Amino acid sequence: MSSQDPPADDGLDAASRLRGLGDEELLAALGEMLGQREAPPRWSVDLARESYGLRAIDAELAALTSDSELETAGSRLRADRGPRLVAFDAAALSVEIEIEPGSRAGRWRLIGQLIPAGPARIQVRRAAAAAPARDAADDLGRFAADEQGHLAADDLGRFAVDDLASGPLSLLCVRPGEQAVATAWITIA
Amino acid sequence: MASDDPPGAAAIGARAPGNRGAAVTGPSAADDPVPGWLRAAAAGDAQAWDRLVDRHAGLVWSICRAHRLSEQDAADVSQLTWMRLLENLERIRDPSRLAGWLATTCRHECLAFLRRSRVSTPVADEHLDRLLGGVESADQPVLAADQHATLWQAFLRLSEGCQRLLRALVVDAEDGPPSYRQVAAALQVPVGSLGPTRARCLDQLRKLLASGI
């Protein structure tokens, strides 16, 4: 999937069904659509505005290339699945992560591997989830992150972090002498 | 961004033959501020980003809600949708169709979220929609979630005048839709123009739906 294209969608079917509606039916559909339009909560709009600060301007985007929870192969119960495996690819770096329940209930542990292997500084970027209070994390500059926002990948390119709250997440990988790489955002939950 | 004048612009700006009447002569595609905001946001202008968010926050939110996400889940998926835009700011191929891009992206993230959170055999989106549409039988929604998103995309590409008119015709009144007389007074147009204008705006909407959003 090239990143500039929205994902494939069955919008065309929906469009042709809508197009077939008579005037009154189409108006009724509009009425429902507009009536259903409750305003988003102010804090959620504020979050979206503030997220501009999370832009990784100089980083190359590592696109999401696989996510075990989105693969439709099996129909096993969620509990039967192993940890969630997610992979991202940039031109010169791949990032593979495993997400599993953390040591505290409702929290998550993330174990990662950089390919090619090598040391890196990794920032866990969080689009501050719904919690109104968010950590200042001054040392991370513009990046909002939890207290473990700074990680080190070892010489084998491995890294791990525990106690992550649910919500959107991206990793910014900074390797010596290389362009920084930011993974596409995913939601852990 | 490939060009300031994307191939779709002509179709968006096109008017149905016989279009007249001040009430529905909205700004043409050339006056659409969104491409400029996108460019500015990509170049580092945080205020332009705020405008993009303010303009489309309702769209993104309503698509999440149309997928029956709770407020918390809608907040997460909305946020993820905004992050997708943020990471693709320089890569939006057709800035005049940002609303469509956001709607499709948001819908995709809603479905991905639902798939992840459901303990079930994976199902086609259409089936999922039908399933979800059937959950809340209280007010029998006319629109499945995919139709909701599609209709939003088309509606947002109507001229401002048509958007205003259709909005006035279907919402606002406390007890049922307002009368033509009330709508005409509110929009300051002759009552007699409403019927034909309404028909023309609905035709415009169908054309947009047909144009492959």
Please explain how this structure is put together.
The complex is a heterodimer of chains A (189) and B (213). With 189 residues, chain A is an alpha+beta fold. Chain A has a domain at 57-188: Immunoglobulin-like (Sandwich). Chain A is 16% helix and 33% strand. Chain A has helices at 11-19, 23-35, 42-50, and strands at 60-67, 84-89, 94-101, 108-115, 120-126, 150-153, 158-164, 167-174, 181-183, 186-188. In chain A, strands 1, 2, 3, 4, 5, 6, 7, 8, 9 and 10 form a ten-stranded mixed β-sheet that branches. The radius of gyration of chain A is 20 Å and the shape is elongated. With 213 residues, chain B is mostly helical. Chain B has two domains: 32-157, Orthogonal Bundle (Rna Polymerase Sigma Factor, Chain: A), CATH 1.10.1740.10; 158-213. Helix content of chain B is 62%, strand content 0%. Chain B has ten helices and no strands. In chain B, α3 crosses α5. The longest helix of chain B has 21 residues, at 46-66. Mean pLDDT of chain B is 74; it is low at 1-28, 119-124 and 130-140. Classes of the chains: A alpha+beta (189), B mainly alpha (213). At the A-B interface, α1, α2, α3 and β8 of A face α3, α4, α5, α7 and α8 of B.
> What pattern of helices and strands is seen along the backbone of chain A?
HHHEEEEEEEEEE
Give unreliable regions of chain B as ranges: 1-28, 119-124, 130-140
Look at the helices and sheets of chain A and give the structural class: alpha+beta
CATH topology of the domain at 57-188 in chain A: Immunoglobulin-like
The chain pair forming the largest interface, with residue counts per chain, is: A-B, 67 and 80 residues
The average pLDDT score of chain B comes to 74
User: What is the oligomeric state here?
Assistant: heterodimer
Summary tags:
heterodimer, A: 189 residues, alpha+beta, Immunoglobulin-like, B: 213 residues, Rna Polymerase Sigma Factor, Chain: A, 10 helices, disordered N terminus
